[in-house]
Amino acid sequence: MYLIDTNIFQEGLLEQEKAESVRYFFQAVDIEKTFMTDLALHSIGIILFRLKKYELFTSFVEDMIINGMEIKYHHCRILSTANAAVS
């Protein structure tokens, strides 16, 4: 199981120095075993909106959240992409 930090996503989304490593990681790991916090999602949204990359954020949410990843909430609530929210 992997809890992915905001900086990992930011590195890949903004094509920064280690973007290739980020791509390699996501190709190598089972996406069903990756998680992000609601704070990470919020932070990514703030970063991309400040840079006026609205479509990139929408695409990110569709690719990572709707199609493949789960979000772990700080109050132990999990939103599954396949099921309704469970406590």
C-alpha-based Rg, rounded: 13 Å
SSE string, helices as H and strands as E? EHHEHHEE
By secondary-structure content and strand pairing, the structural class works out as: alpha/beta
Oligomer: single chain
Keywords:
87 residues, 4 strands, 51% helix, 4 helices, alpha/beta, four-stranded mixed sheet, globular
How would you describe what is shown here?
By secondary structure, the protein is α/β, with parallel strands linked by helices. It has one domain. 51% of the residues lie in helices and 13% in strands. It is built from four helices and four strands, in the order E-H-H-E-H-H-E-E. It has helices spanning 6-13, 19-28, 38-50, 54-66, and strands at residues 2-3, 34-37, 70-72, 78-79. It has a four-stranded mixed sheet. Strand 3 (70-72) and strand 4 (78-79) form a beta hairpin. It is globular, with a radius of gyration of 13 Å.
SSE blueprint and pairings:
Elements: E1 2-3, H1 6-13, H2 19-28, E2 34-37, H3 38-50, H4 54-66, E3 70-72, E4 78-79
Parallel strand pairs: 1-2, 2-3
Antiparallel strand pairs: 3-4
Helix pairs in contact: 1-2
